[in-house]
Amino acid sequence: MSETAQEQYKITNEMIDEIESRLNKLEFMISGSLSTSDDNLMKFPLLQQQTIQSLQQQQKKATLKQFIQQTIPQKQPLPQPQQQSQILQITENIVETINRYQTKLNTIKSENESISAYLTLYNQCEKRFNQILDDQPTLNSVEKLAIILSAEDELLQTAKNLQKLNELEKFINTESLSSLPQLTLKLKPIENLHAEQEAITIQLNKKLGEKVQSYNDIIKELSFRFQYWDKVLTELERSV
């Protein structure tokens, strides 16, 4: 391989630092949108790169301090006879609970043929499933890193969208919207009154329809009578 090719494929510290910086930025931008997270760092909104690096260093120091405190063994007092008795009693209670649940599981298995058949089939195929999983190659750290960096733009855009949703959440969780259930209860009397008025309106419309029909029948009867009297008068005039 020529010197130019070697220089092209040479991995420098600057390249490693750049990749690490990109990964840290991705991780913080995505986790920074989770305002409800238990992690204090994740509750911050998206910040500038310098602020991001400062917060990351503080978090790393806190994590390292916590790890050291958990790693260093501390002197524990020897258990007294009473403490030993309590530990023994707790252990016996745990064993009794496990045995009780085991008995219940065996009862369920014996009373349900479908569950028993499924467990039998599962026990027969368990080794084959494990063999298939063991034969599948896992991704190494370089391949995982390549997958993450290949989706860098999508991850950044997702983080920005999550941040926008977090900013718009205040318009959804307003006091007026949160009081809607109480306002719905206050509307109940108005809804009942509206239902009563609707029933009255239906009855009035029905009566009005009956009156209109009676009016039409009267007008029709009068028309027949006028025609009859007109016919009678016409015949009398001809006879005279």
Model regions low in confidence, pLDDT < 50 over at least 5 residues:
5-9, 36-49, 71-75
Spell the H/E element sequence.
Answer: HHHHHHHHHH
Shape: elongated
Q: Could you estimate the helical fraction of the residues in percent?
A: over 70%
Distance between the termini: 141 Å
Radius of gyration, in Å, reads 43 Å
Query: Could you describe the largest sheet, including whether it forms a barrel?
Result: none
Domain tally: 3
Beta-strand residue fraction: under 5%
Count of helical regions: 10
Number of strands: 0
The overall average pLDDT, rounded, is 73
Structural class designation: mainly alpha
Report what the structure shows.
By secondary structure, the chain is an all-alpha fold. The protein folds into three domains: 103 residues, no CATH class; 57 residues; 50 residues. Helix content is 82%, strand content 0%. The protein has ten helices and no strands. α2 packs parallel to α7. The longest helix has 52 residues. The radius of gyration is 43 Å and the shape is elongated. About 10% of the residues have low confidence.
